[in-house]
Write a structure and sequence with these properties.
Largest sheet: 7 strands, antiparallel
CATH class: Mainly Beta
InterPro entries: Split_barrel_FMN-bd, TR_PAI2-type
Organism: Novosphingobium arvoryzae
Distance between the termini: 22 Å
Protein name: Transcriptional regulator
Oligomer: single chain
CATH architecture: Roll
CATH superfamily: Electron Transport, Fmn-binding Protein, Chain A
Pfam family, one: FMN_bind_2
């Protein structure tokens, strides 16, 4: 994570909310074949763990049980131009949100995997306005068994949280306001909004 302490935000509830809102991240681990990454839907249990699932054939699947892994959740980001500063002797940078989670991974049993999949699909189905709500029970039992056989569920006990909320906190308030306006005008409204709401 970024070494500047100004970009830390020790509000655990905020980090949990970011994970909940984004719902997707990357799992990194070392394997005998070298470092590997998988891109996965994520589900926070709310009690210090995070769940995800992988295809049985994924390069990480057979190595994760009992391993220490790193999960990264990336939030909004945007390029910051020096032209937005009053002091023109600046250089370009990038504002961004990222949360790193490190911990020990364990494989779920079949019941845990099914409960995880139901929770993930229910959470995201609730966000969709149009059409009928889809749930796992709409699948025929035989089809569901076949799909479950092709994936493996995991739960990571989070042992370390490392967050970077790089929102120009190292700049004066008027400079931050100009950067936020610039980011919004150039198509990055989400990071601009976070700059306005999460910095003094």
């Amino acid at each position: 994570m970024h070494p500047n302490a100004a970009f830390r935000h020790p509000d655990r509830a905020l980090c949990e909310a970011l994970i909940e809102e984004i719902g997707f991240g990357m799992v990194f681990a070392t394997t005998p074949d070298g470092p590997r990454v998988a891109h996965v839907p994520l589900l926070s249990t709310g009690d210090g763990a995070i769940q995800f699932h992988l295809s049985r054939g994924n390069a990480l699947t057979k190595h994760l049980n009992g391993a220490t892994a790193l999960i990264v959740v990336n939030g909004p980001d945007g390029y910051v131009s020096p032209r937005w500063y009053a002091d023109r002797e600046q250089v370009p940078t990038w504002n961004y949100i990222a949360v790193e989670l490190e911990g020990r991974v364990r494989r779920m049993d079949a019941d845990g995997l099914l409960a995880h999949l139901e929770a993930v699909s229910d959470r995201h189905e609730e966000r969709i306005v149009e059409g009928d709500f889809w749930s796992m029970d709409k699948l025929p039992a035989e089809k569901l068994r076949g799909l479950l056989a092709g994936i493996v569920g995991f739960e990571m006990e989070i042992q370390a949280w490392r967050e970077t909320l790089k929102l120009s906190q190292n700049k004066p308030a008027d400079e931050r306001a100009r950067v936020a306006d610039g980011l919004e005008s150039e198509g990055s409204p989400a990071i601009a909004q976070l700059m306005r709401t999460l910095t003094p």
